[in-house]
Structure formats: C-alpha cells, structure tokens
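The instructor's notes for this session suggest beginning with a concrete chain rather than abstract definitions. Hand out the sequence below and ask the class to guess, before any prediction is shown, which regions might be ordered.
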Amino acid sequence: MSLDKTSAQKMVLEGISYAKIGKHKDAISFFDKALKLEPENIEALYNKGISLLEIKKNKDATSCFEKIIEYKYDHVEALNNLGNQYAELQQFEKAVTYYDRALASDSNYIPALYNKGIAISRLEKYDDALDCLNKVLNKEPENIQAVYYKGMVLGKQKKYEDAISFLDKFIERELKDNEVLFYNEVFYEALFYKATDLAELGRHQDAILIFDKILKEFPKNGTIIYAKARSKAQLGEDSDALILLAQAISHYGKTIKKWAVKDSSFDKLKGDPKFKTIVK
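After discussion, reveal the predicted structure:
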C-alpha cells in the first residue's frame, strides 16, 4: 500500500471517530484531508456525504454520492442516498431510478426496497408500493416503519379494515416503546390515518374519539379539525360540523374551503346559508 493511501486511510478512520460522537464538521475536515491524498477514496467520499447530511448540507452530500457512482457505478449505499435526496426534492420518479439501480446491484438491500416503496406510494402506484413493503416485511417482520407505511398504503387502496390492522400494530409498538407521554409526529399521523379509515367505514364516533386525542396535542391543526367536522356532518350533528368547519378554515383558509365545497360529506349542509357563508 502506498504512503498516500495509508495516510488517507488513517484520516478516514479519524473522521469516522469524530462522526460517531456527532462532531461532523471535524469529521469532514479529516475526510477532506484523505481526499486530497486520494481523490477517489470511496470510503472518505461516502462518510463525508453522510456527515454533510447530518449538518443539512444536502446539495454538497449529493455531490459526494454522485462522485462515488462515477468511480463505482453499483455502490448501493450511495445510490440509495441519491434516491433519498431526490425524494426530499419531491422528484419521486427520479428517486425511484436510483433505488432501482441499487436493487439491481443487491435485490435484498432493505433500505432501497423500503425507500422505493414510499416513493412509489407518493406516485400513487399503490400495488407496486405494497410489493416493495411486503418484501421488506418478509425479511424484517418487525420493521415497524414498513408496518406503518403498509397500513397507510392499504388505506389509500380503500382496504380500510386491513389498513387499520397494520396501523394498530404500529400504534401498539409506539405505546409500548414510549412509557412517558411523548410520541413523535409519525405516531400521531398513524392515529390520524386510523381515524380517517374508521370514518370511511362509517365508524364516526370511534373516529372522533381519535381526532379529539390528536387535537389535545395539536389544537390548531386545521386538517384534523376538518376531518372531525366531516364526521360530525355524517352523524347529522350539523351545528357542531359548521362550527368545526369554520375553525378549520380559520387555520387553513382557502385550502379547507376548496375541500368543503367538493366534499360529499357536507352535501346535506350545502344548501344551508351558514355553510355558504363559511365557505364563501
């Protein structure tokens, strides 16, 4: 091994040690030193890219991953991370091309399968999304994030009972893992999707109980308030529905008005002068 290559490897290891304790700027300085000695050092480029992501320099991170695949076209981790960057930019079709390249190199690479499933679901290709998520769960049955997204996708397919079953698995795990009364946003998203699925099944009282639980944490969330208004309207509780609809509009304005005008849940109220005033 050449002196430059040996020195570069030492710099990479030093950078990794700093990255492990969260000192990513220091880590990057060592990766840069390694790259001056050995510009095509893939390990240095990859770890620099990861540290750049940690400090929110996504564009620079993307450059690192792009350089890697110039030197090693089938580097699955770099391809997966490039897919993630395009997914962040809402360029889901382009993201999928990178996930596919990663999977062409390693068809069992779970991160690419999982991320492809999410990206494809955003493209509303729900059967393909389920195929990816099922492959993940076949290999990792306890992958709780895949369980969550499968529940969400099943709901999009209007398979509400199945969707609720998977969302419940996710919710139960979150409750078990969080003994204190603190849950992340994904937990509340799962509750919301479960509630909307219950509403689609006509179980509006059950849905409202969940909406109320979410609103205790996010009292000004117009989407949740609107969903509760829909269920109240379906139950014939017109006064409550109109009050909630007005509240939702006060938070999210024109968006909620457009939803309400087209929403069949409010059909019985659309002739009511109060409804017309609220959505005006």
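Then share the key points. The chain has a mean pLDDT of 93. The first helix runs from residue 3 to 20.
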